[in-house]
Amino acid sequence: MSDLLANLNAPQLQSVTLPPVHALILAGAGSGKTRVLTTRIAWLISTNQLGPQGVLAVTFTNKAAKEMTARLSSLVPINVRGMWIGTFHGLCNRLLRAHYREVGLPQSFQIMDSADQLAMVKRLAKNLGLDDERFPPRELCQFINAHKEQGLRAAQAEAYDSHTQKRVDFYVEYENQCNREGVVDFAELLLRCYELLQRNEPLRTHYQQRFQQILVDEFQDTNRLQYAWLQLLAGGGAKIFAVGDDDQSIYRFRGAEVGNMRDFERDYAGANIIRLEQNYRSHGNILAAANAIIKFNSDRLGKNLWTDAGEGERIRVFEGVSDLDEARFVIEEIRELIRDGMTPTQIAILYRSNAQSRVLEHELFTKAIPYKVYGGLRFFERQEIKHALAYLRLLGNPDDDTAFLRVVNFPTRGIGARSLENLQAAAHQTHSSLYNAAASLSGKAGQAVGAFIRLIESLRLETEKLPLPEIIEHVIEKSGLAEHYRTDKEGQERLENLDELINAAATFVDDDGVVMSVEGEGGALASFLAHASLESGEHQAGEGQEAVQLMTVHAAKGLEFDAVFITGLEQGLFPHENAVNEGKDGLEEERRLMYVAITRARQRLYLCSAQTRMLHGQTRYCVPSSFLGEIPESLMLRLNKRQKAAPAVPVFGDFGGGYAEPVVDGLRVGLTVEHAKFGIGVIVATEGRGADARVQVNFASNGMKWLALEYAKLTPV
DNA sequence: TGGGAGTGCTTTTTT
DNA sequence: AGCACTCCCA
User: Considering the entire predicted model, what is its pTM?
Assistant: First the structure.
């Protein structure tokens, strides 16, 4: 045990060895958060204060859950397999499988991923005759998810106007449809589980007594429902050990409530708050820059990172003439770093939005530097995989309309839109699933549909006794999927992916399958399908290869690199204009994003921007990011002088403007102007000439606006 | 049925 | 610019 606690610093040690109390650990970037979390569990178990079954540890991503499990098993000699360590969704799924009767779900209920959900919403909206202009399916999805994440059922949703009322009505229909089909979406997993615990007193008591210690990772990312879920489970005396960093909360847009951290402080008055502020990752100058930036945010819980690693290098700042120029600079520097012995994998290029990767990729490709872009299509999201899974889902649950529609005519079997319309009408009338309604369909179309039903039935019979991988293999072959992709000229890769799916199933049976099939009564197939929905799979080709890492700042959270390039540091891009338009909260989230980006770097950090950038097919003139102006000049090393004579335009401080040709009336990009209504702003882009001329102005208090010069009065300031 | 043309959108993303 | 999605025609 002394080993366990060796090399922990004072606050880490204090956190790990806290008595059974509620605690909030404010863990700064690179301060050993995961280590504290896992050591805490290990310490509790190895000192016999708690059995492994008394622990509930929650994370957001499968990756984090896996890492925690792996680290834990290296710390204590216990079987971590059966422990309740997982994602919110994974754990709720586990609970719901165990108690499917109590929540009124079919034994082998299916989980819809976002794409499935969108498909269902589209279908339903169409059937209900909703105008998709006024009610875009994506918005309807968001509406439903947002409500569920607030813990609100349709009956509790408030509607102040008729438009919202329509959406609430739709929410009702959606719930009904999900129940009819026996499917749940991601948010439903949580809400259903929450309601189960809330309403079922014996069950609640059971779990409240079982879990004595509830540990939460990345607490700043929890939404309201997740927090309520935790509170419910902790209602019987269990202690919550929440680890998080309010400065790294970057998922507000998907429902995360940083406010939960303050609420936690309040709700568990006397919660021990411990700050982990010693950073073991970055050199001093890098941390100083991060601290300087984040200080501009209000309402922080307060925390200042420090290091004893020394100042290190200054932060390199480069301003390119164009996005291409910026990319060339970045890639040239990378070549040098590699030449000097740095491992490509230890170099990361970060950007605010995915679209920015294109130019960078092009340059990397040209210079033959191996690179890897994160954040593409994931394994279980590929169409061929989704098709195969849809067949499998129909075997377990014929009422799954989404699955039915996905493959009823794939590969094509002459079932067109017409017959499907008839089928849907029939299903709607009898309140039954498409599969059920298919029996009633007559005529030529009925025959084709009938053949499909018989196919599914025979697949079910044929695979009944087979082990999981063979079921999948059989289905892929006999459904005609394999044949379809064999004849498709670009089907080779898809065939390989389908093989990979069979492999995945084989591994699944060996690993998780054993545990899952004990827990979940749905059998191996149902467990595997749940696994496929919950873990979209980071099976990226070329993993482990030496390659420069490209990703968005969001994707970089939790990672670290020797050298980091933050690119596109321009006003409107980073901070993003949409966020800026949202006001103070939006801007502060962007600032936290910048904070996350900076703190990824160990030794060397580059801040790059461009004076012009291709955006949406147009050249846009850019002003350097306001964040650059928030870093003390003394920490920075400017790598280049302005390449054009600066028109000496002060913009929000002293970090200079962009440059371009005058448009009309002496107005040009970079110029600060005043508008009677919108106030002071900076011209960011121009378009057209003469009477058609328009300028885009970034107003300090009103955000980005396009203005026609013919009408708008702009006076240079 | 399937492809070609026309249309519109475009921050971040996990489960 | 690029991509996804829809619509319409052969």
Answer: 0.85
